[in-house]
Structures are given as C-alpha cells and as structure tokens.
Write a structure and sequence with these properties.
- The protein is α/β, with parallel strands linked by helices.
- The chain folds into two domains: 257 residues, Ribonuclease Z/Hydroxyacylglutathione hydrolase-like (Metallo-beta-lactamase, Chain A, 4-Layer Sandwich), CATH 3.60.15.10; 170 residues, Metallo-hydrolase/oxidoreductase (Rossmann fold, 3-Layer(aba) Sandwich), CATH 3.40.50.10710.
- The protein contains 14 helices and 19 strands.
- The strands form three sheets. A seven-stranded mixed β-sheet has the order 6-5-4-3-2-1-19. The protein has a six-stranded mixed β-sheet with strand order 7-8-9-10-11-18, with helices on one face.
- Helix 4 packs antiparallel against helix 8 and helix 6 crosses helix 7.
- The longest helix is centred in the N-terminal third of the chain and has 14 residues.
- The N and C termini lie close together (5 Å).
C-alpha cells in the first residue's frame, strides 16, 4: 500500500489523502482550503466561474487530476471511492468538482447536514449515488477494506477510518477530541484496532498552538448555566449551527433555569433531519421541553427556494414564537443566534441590556460576517461573554492515541507544526504535499 497527502501536510484545512494499491486508489476527504497561498484567509469567490482545469492550474483543487477530469476515453476510473470524514467544509468543500463516476462514501447524517447547509448558502450540491457507511461496520472499496469509527468532534457524525489492504493497515484519525459529549469513542477505537498500525495519519490542529483545552463540553454547559442564571434579560448564544454538542450544552443550560430555548427554523430542520437518520440521535427537536422556533424572513425565503419551507411549517409551526412572544419572555429566553439573524433581532423590543455569549473560535471574531453580530451586540449594550472549547484533540490526547496504537509510522496532517510531532511520539514521517510513501 502507498500513501500520499495532497493537502494538509503543513496546513489546517483542505485535507485530501490518497491511498493506493496497484492501480486501485481511494481518496479520503476533499476539503476547501482555509488559508490561501498568500497566507490570508482563503476566499473561494475569487475563483467562481472557473472550470475544473483552471481550478487545478490555480492550485485550488488538489493535484489529483483524474479525481476531477477524465482522459476522454471510456477507461475505468482508477479512483474507486471518496470517503468523507465529516461535514466541515475544510473536509468536503470541493466535493462538487469530483467526477460523478467516483462513488462517495459518507455517514447518513453527514449527508443530511451537507444538503441542508447547501440550501441555506445557495450552493449547488448534489450527490447522485451516495453510499452510507455505519460505525464499526467494515465495507469493501476496490482492494481496500474500510472500517469507519465515530469520533468525538464538534461536527456531528464525524469519522476516522481504518483502511486495510494486503496485510497493511492505515488509520486516518479525521478531526477528533476527547473532551466532548462522546468521550467513549476513543476507548472503543483502542479496543477494536490492534496496536502496530503501519501508519497513523493524525490530526494536530493544536500542536504548537497557544490554544489550550481548559473545558469539557459538560463543564462548558455548567458555566453557560451560571451566565444564564445571572442574566436579567434574554441570552443570545452564538455558535456554529453544525456544532450539535454545543447546541445541546446551551439547551441543557437553559433548562437548568427553566428558560425557553429558541432556535430558528433552519436549525430546527437541521435537528429534525438528524433525528430522522437510522441512528436516531437524541437531539432537542421541536417538541422537546421548552423548545420554541422563530421564522426569520430571510431564512424562510431560502428554505422556500429549496422546497423545504412547507415541511418546516408543518413540523415546526406549532412551536412558533414571534417578536411579541420573545418580548414577553425576555427574562426566560435563551436564543441561538447567527449574524444572518440580525434583521430579526432588530425587531425584538427590549433586547437592550441582554447577554451575548460568543461560543466559537475567537479568530473568527475579526471576520466581517462575525463582526456584524458583535457590533450589533455592542450597539444594544449587551453583556458580552466568551465561552468556548475546541473541537480538536489536546497534545495529551494525541500522545495517548499514539501510545495505544503504537504506529510504525506517525504522519502529521491538519497541522501548522509537523516538526513538533517528535514531541508526541516516535517514528514521525513528515510528508511533503503529493509525496508518495510506500508502506
């Protein structure tokens, strides 16, 4: 077996890994870059309208020509599948450019997240023949046997993969942590994957970072509850709509003070879609205690455009709360908010003096999109609180993974500091972009 990393050897985001055996190949993830070649935040809008060949030339698409373009002949594609680890754009954002002949393998809930997110952003997104896998259930793809493992990450339905072929084993960690709401995932992985894997492709977002893991998700919930309890008016919580662990934390924190938990109709439909999947996760959909739903006009327009609004009204309408309902309950409302909801928030009487909890990476605070919400909060003289914990593993957790799996080769990915992996374990192999490693 051979391994190559087409993006992610010295950067966070844009992950793309290739595994090959003879002429048979598979890809893991096909992410959108987070940072451009100039070191600034990557802006895809500069490349809109370019075809696949131009995007390859510009370096936007990873250098895997036959993943995006054929050779004009009716030969069988050597890439037998693309595995998607989870529904964060830096892991799947370039998927729409992949040739339709290549099968996509992903979790059912991951696909639901991707589809509804595309509806909200207006992006064209279709997967003609998705193939769903399940946690711990091996499946065949070409000459490879792949076992997906659910991981604890800020993205719902995130996976790592054990890939086996001709006696060789590679474990791709995907993005993960051990301090979220699924701490049992790593012990289960250790129990099912025998030590001595030939290669461990290990994410290292926090390697060399000043960010530290100081809170578990349950500890964050308790701190959120304390903030909510002392807040005399509404509490607005800003977090990623796809961070379901965080949503659950704020929902449970709201219940501790018997507050209403208010979400917009997009977030409500997102949870409904997840609850409808085969795994039936227990997420606070409309109908759960104290859950209420708002219907901002701009969000309803997007759902209508994609044919989802009628269903949303049918499933969420009886739990609707309007401006007056929020005004009359300001002292007992916790509302999930995003910058796209500012126009709705402006119409709520008496919001001044409420509390805004910022619960995502502080680096986003400088972005124009996020800055709008923070400026609005300050204009309304809101009390601003910062409360967040990362979706990525601490160096201590990484060391534990290495200790338990005893890899013959430790391969950095999703990191700015591959040179520091020697502090985590032995047998580090730093690959350059596109460099092939024979196992």
């Amino acid at each position: 077996m051979r391994l190559a990393i087409h993006r992610g050897t010295h950067e966070i985001g844009g992950s793309c890994v290739e595994l090959g055996n003879g002429a048979c190949r598979i890809l893991i993830d096909i992410g959108m870059p987070l940072v451009g070649s100039d070191g600034e935040r990557f802006e895809f809008r500069k490349y809109r309208g370019l075809d696949r060949e131009a995007l390859l030339k510009e370096g936007v698409l990873p250098d895997v020509y036959d993943a995006f373009l054929g050779d004009g002949r009716n030969e069988e594609c050597p890439i037998k599948g693309l595995l998607v680890s989870h529904a964060h754009l830096d892991h799947y954002g370039l998927l729409k450019y992949v040739r339709e002949v290549i099968p996509f393998y992903l979790g059912e809930a991951t696909l639901r997240l991707m589809e509804l997110s595309a509806a909200m952003t207006g992006e064209k997104f279709t997967i003609g023949n998705p193939r769903h896998f399940e946690h711990g259930v091996p499946f065949e793809c070409g000459r490879f046997t792949i076992t997906p493992f659910l991981m604890d990450h800020s993205a719902f339905d995130a996976y790592g993969f054990l890939v086996e072929s001709d006696g060789k084993r590679v474990l791709y960690s995907g993005d993960f942590r051990s301090h979220g709401r699924k701490p049992g995932r790593l012990p289960e992985l250790f129990a099912k994957v025998m030590p001595g894997v030939d290669a461990l492709v290990l994410e290292g977002t926090l390697v060399g970072s000043e960010r530290d893991v100081t809170l578990t998700e349950e500890q964050l919930e308790k701190q959120a509850a304390a903030i909510i309890k002392k807040s005399p008016k509404a509490v607005c919580a800003y977090f990623s709509a796809q961070n379901i662990d965080r949503l659950v934390s704020f929902y449970k924190a709201a219940l501790r003070s018997d507050r209403l938990f208010v979400m917009d109709v997009y977030l409500a439909m997102l949870l409904i879609r997840l609850a409808e999947t085969k795994s039936h996760p227990q997420v606070p959909v409309p109908g759960f205690k104290n859950v209420r739903v708002i219907f901002p006009q701009n969000i309803c327009s997007r759902l209508r455009k994609h044919g989802v609004l009628d269903e949303a009204i049918a499933k969420c309408g009886q739990y609707k709360i309007d401006y007056a309902g929020i005004e009359g309950n300001l002292s007992r409302v916790v509302m999930a908010v995003r910058p796209s909801m500012i126009d709705f928030m402006k119409q709520i009487p008496g919001l001044e003096g409420s509390t805004l909890i910022y619960s995502t990476w502080r680096g986003y605070e400088k972005d124009a999109y996020c800055k709008r919400l923070m400026d609005f909060g300050r204009e309304k003289q809101m009390q601003i609180e910062y409360l967040h914990t990362t979706g990525h593993a601490s160096p201590e957790t990484l060391k534990e993974v290495i200790k338990r799996l005893q890899p013959k080769r430790l391969i950095p990915i999703h990191t700015l500091h591959p040179e520091l992996y020697s502090m985590l374990g032995d047998n580090v192999v730093q690959l350059q972009r596109g460099e092939a490693l024979e196992l």
